[in-house]
Design goal:
Layout: H1 3-32, H2 36-44, H3 54-60, H4 65-77, E1 81-85, E2 93-97, H5 99-115, H6 123-138
Antiparallel strand pairs: 1-2
Length: 140
């Protein structure tokens, strides 16, 4: 196979896996009463990390900050998250999961992990894949 064919095949496979993950995630969203965009926001809200600004969340999700404002309101209405001042700069707003939001996020991650195309890989294969993807993403 020529290099271009290998690259094209790899990209096709990555896109196919991404489509499967997205499709399988959406299967569990109804049960959790989430939309795709609110699930994506919950996904990136890591409760163990420093709170991200709303602007940073918009960058992570490749969307306009006004969309994050709307999604934040939807999560707040359900009691899953709350906007707070950034601990280092009170002028900046962050979005933080509530205890209920952490629970729903864990359920979302569990649904996706269980149905993921990666679930059939053993721990060593998953670690190798993670290392390769980390390397690929670092070369942006």
């Amino acid at each position: 196979m020529a290099v271009d064919e290998v690259a094209a095949s790899l990209l096709y496979q990555v896109m196919a896996v991404a489509g499967q993950v997205t499709g399988r995630m959406h299967d569990g969203l109804e049960r959790l009463r989430l939309t795709g965009p609110t699930a994506n926001l919950l996904w990136v809200l890591n409760p163990g990390a420093e709170p991200q600004s709303l602007r940073k969340l918009a960058t992570l999700l490749h969307c306009d900050p006004s969309n994050i404002t709307l999604l934040s309101s939807q999560l707040e209405e359900r009691g899953l998250a709350e906007r707070r001042p950034h601990p280092g700069d009170g002028r900046v707003r962050t979005l933080v999961l509530t205890p209920q939001g952490r629970e729903i996020r864990e359920q979302l991650l569990a649904v996706v992990a269980k149905r993921s195309p990666f679930a059939s890989l053993d721990a060593e294969e998953q670690q190798l894949l993670q290392a390769l993807l980390t390397k690929a993403l670092a070369n942006r």
